[in-house]
Task: structure prediction
Amino acid sequence: MWIERASPRPQNLGVENGRFAPCPASPNCVSTQASPDDTEHYISAIPYNTDLATAHDTIIQIIQQTPRTTIITNSPDYIYAEFRTPLWRFIDDVEFYFDDENKLIHFRSASRLGYGDMGTNRKRMEAIRTTFLRQSDNEGS
Result:
């Protein structure tokens, strides 16, 4: 498919010393690790009150239930998945890092192509947060 050739996988994926790569200056990226003063890129982390494995499994289930997604890396404290947009199948790179010490799921979601994303990355991550928190509430009931 031409999208894969036009937009190779970024080289700056992963977590180093508990940190993702920073978002670029363009508005097509959100990250829990951006400065809270950076309202264009900052989004709050997802809290969890279960054990790490349960939080991880819940995120995996949410990703698997989302159309047009592929999990590329799945380790105990890190997940990397590719999400494709509905119409043109543009690829967005989404990373999750489980900070078990602070019971937070950090994430970064960035479009590979273009400058803006019309809020797609933020909307996606807010939807994942809402689903996670709803499922976590049900597990605790």
About this structure: The CA atoms of residues 80 and 95 lie 4 Å apart.
